[in-house]
Every structure is written in structure tokens, then in C-alpha cells.
Amino acid sequence: MLVLLGVVVVILGFVTRRNPALVVGVTGIVTGLLGRMNPLEVLAAFGQSFAESRSVTVFAVVLPVIGLLERYGLREQARRLIGRLSGLSAGRFLAVYLLVRQVTAAFGLNNIGGPAQTVRPLVAPMAEAAAERRLGATLPDRLREKVRSYASSSDTVGLFFGEDCFIAIGSILLITGFVNSTYGQDIEPTQLALWAAPLAVCAFVIHGARLLLLDRQLEREMALASAEHDLPLPKGADK
Fold this sequence. Notes:
- By secondary structure, this protein is mainly α.
- 76% of the residues lie in helices and 0% in strands.
- It is built from 11 helices and no strands.
- The model has no long low-confidence stretch (mean pLDDT 81).
């Protein structure tokens, strides 16, 4: 029963708003000691858990790398690169990224993109630069956040509807395993993946259309913002 005191440590840690990683670490130590494990056994348990779930903790290595890249100008270089492409707008760029994200996820390459490793340092700054080039003005904070939200949505929609087309993804294997064992069926992962393909196409068409309409929305909202603050109209807003 004493081992259950680790639950109390978790509750107290979250109630007092402590760092979640610190709370979980202290809880593991307390639970191990109450379970009559010596300090070396507790440390060995932490190491074994870390080694068995490296895919979960890989962010601890990825995030510092991304932080260093941003510190030395990754976002600025991305904005400068997209600014040279005169015919590319924010909506078109995000539609292309949506397609790339869906196709790569359909082949099981889920981890090459994501909000932390791709959207924040690359996709969002490039979309902002494309929007500012098209409008010929600096985006207000409200519109900048809107472009960032669309950048994040293109990544999420692309991954969510693309990964189900890959037969070895966890969700497909979970569904087939549950249905086959519970209802006595003989469903193959390939069958579910084929049924997911039309849904992925529909998701691309619907969200891609929303992304392409983003350019007009930005022009209208930029015109309203310019009128409110008596600023010059952005390019194309008077059409």
C-alpha cells in the first residue's frame, strides 16, 4: 500500500503547478524507494525505461538542435528564401506543404514534419514571408497568428489523413487486431489503407481549397486594418 503514495506525490505536484517532468521523476524515485528498491535499482529502472521508449523521448535531443538552428538564423533564412519566389503566395505554399505532408505520411515518414521540427522554424516563417511579399506590407500580429495557425493546420491535416494510407501505422494495426480478435473477422491492413485513400483525397481537396482562399482573406483583413489605422492599402486590396 505504501507504493501508492507515489500517486499522492503526482497530485501534490500538479496541484502546486510544478514542472511535470520533475513531478514524474520524483514520483518514480519515491515509488521505487517505497517498493524497497535501492538507489541503483531505481536508476537502472529509469535507464531501462528510457532505452525502451527512445521514440517518445527523442524530442529531448531534437528540440535543442532546432533551438540552435533558430538562434543562428534558420527562420530568417527561410523567410529570405521564400521572399525571392514572386509567384508564390501563403495559400499556395501551404497547399504544396499539405500535399507533401500527406504523401510522405502515406509512406510512413511521419517524423520528418511536425509543429516543433518543421512548422515553427520553417513553414510558418516562409508562409509569413510569402504573405508579406504578396501584400507588400508587414503583417499585423493578428494576421501573423492566423497564418501560423493555417501553417499548423496544414501539417496536422496532412499527417492525420495521410498516415492511415500506410499499412504499418499503429492505428491501422490496432483496428485490424481489435476487429479480427473481437468479431472473428479476417481484415487485412491493406484493405483499411485502401479505404483511407479516398478520404485522404477529400481532405486534401477541402483543406487545400481553404488554404487557397487564405490569400483573399488576408487581403480583405489587411485592407480593413489599413482603413482602421489610416494606412496605405496593400497591393491588390483595391481590386
